[in-house]
Amino acid sequence: MSELKKYTGGCHCGKVAYEVSANLDNVISCNCSICQKRGMLLTFVPPEQFVLQKGDEKALTDYQFNKKVIHHLFCPECGVESFATGTTPDGKRMYAINVRCLEDVDLAALKPQPVDGRRF
Ligand SMILES: [Zn+2]
């Protein structure tokens, strides 16, 4: 059932563009201090499913807080955080995709799973 589909995404001004294979049955809406303020809807993918086509991770503004395990990367031009990257507790790299930044997604049809990120 968990079908991967290809999506393109990126920031607002176009400096950041990527292609990602994701299953949007698994979308979370997190209430942690940053997701709440940014209104993020997230899905998580391993590096094999993420290709940055435009922009350079190092050229993006990197915001870190709390335990500093996640790099919140946002475009220095338009300020949109279209993805974040970090390391899972078992040491694997992962990408957190801001589903609101993907093209051709019917956001109203998604059923985001609430995650109590504030607790962590
Ligand atoms: Zn931008």
TrEMBL record:
Keywords: Metal-binding, Zinc. The keyword Cell cycle does not apply. One of its GO terms (molecular function) is metal ion binding. Residues 7-116 form the CENP-V/GFA domain. It holds the Pfam family GFA. Belongs to the Gfa family. This is Aldehyde-activating protein. It comes from Cystobacter ferrugineus.
